[in-house]
Amino acid sequence: MKSGLEIAQEAKLIPITEIAAKAGFLEEEVEPYGRYRAKV
Questions:
Q1: How far is residue 40's CA from residue 31's CA, in Å, rounded to a whole number?
Q2: Rounded to an integer, what distance in angstroms lies between the CA atom of residue 34 and that of residue 10?
Q3: Total structural domains in the chain?
Q4: CA distance 9 to 31
Q5: Residue 35 domain flag
Q6: pLDDT digits 0-9 by tens, 1-40
Q7: What is the CA radius of gyration of the chain?
Q8: Is residue 7 included in any domain, yes or no?
Q9: Which DSSP string corresponds to 5-23?
């Protein structure tokens, strides 16, 4: 069984702006904290 660290290292990260757009959020509704995290 893989450890949590191994799973995290294998994950393909998607920019949060792309995820927010696909979820239907407007640009002004998303406050990015780096490339992969944000507040909505």
A1: 6
A2: 20
A3: 1
A4: 25
A5: yes
A6: 999 999 999 999 999 999 999 999 999 999 999 999 999 8
A7: 13
A8: no
A9: HHHHHH-----HHHHHHHH
Cα separation, 10 vs 37, in Å, equals: 18
Q: Which two tokens stand for residue 14?
A: 């998607």
Pull the structure tokens for residue 30. 């998303």
Is residue 5 assigned to a domain?
Answer: no
In one letter, which amino acid is 10? E
| pLDDT value of residue 10 | 97
- Give yes or no for a contact between 16 and 32, defined as CB atoms under 8 angstroms apart: yes
Scan for tokens 């640009």, then name that residue.
27
In a domain, 23, yes or no: yes
**Domain hosting residue 35, numbered range:** 12-39
